[in-house]
Amino acid sequence: MSIIIRKAEPGDVPAMLELVKELAVFERAPDAVWNTEEAMLRDGFGEQPFFHTFVAELPETSEVVGLALYHWAYSSWKGKYMYLDDLYVKEKMRGQGTGKLLLDTFLKEAQAQGANMVKWQVLNWNEPAIKMYKKQGVTFDNEWIDCKIFYPK
């Protein structure tokens, strides 16, 4: 089965949000998504986008079956870098290389744009993803603890 990896367009937002919701279910947090199509359109495709996305598309049907959503960040030690917020592939497409294609495209984009590093998180029980990342030579950091404060709407 062939897959097209391309930059997301505004018309992809409904499929992107649906994939984000599927990811939340996969990550055992089905009610955690607050985002909306309107916010994703504004924040990803407005005058100054906060994030960028690559999508995986089936050419036969134009169905979006995966995404890599990322944004720029800055490290006082390393300088500018890209943070991969979501890498997700629909269940029916897993194990066929779609996730690797998305990851490879993201990594090439980071290098082309002059990022000094890339960073992302993976749940410690997501063994298929961890296995894929190990093949990429990823460094796993068990020393740092994530900190968050939510501002509910």
TrEMBL record:
Q: What is this protein called?
A: N-acetyltransferase domain-containing protein
Is Acyltransferase there in the keyword field?
yes
**SUPFAM superfamilies, sorted:** Acyl-CoA N-acyltransferases (Nat)
The keyword Acyltransferase is assigned to this record: yes
Keyword list, A-Z? Acyltransferase, Transferase
Q: Where is the N-acetyltransferase domain?
A: 3-153
Give the InterPro entries listed for this entry: Acyl_CoA_acyltransferase, Diverse_Substrate_AcTransf, GNAT_dom
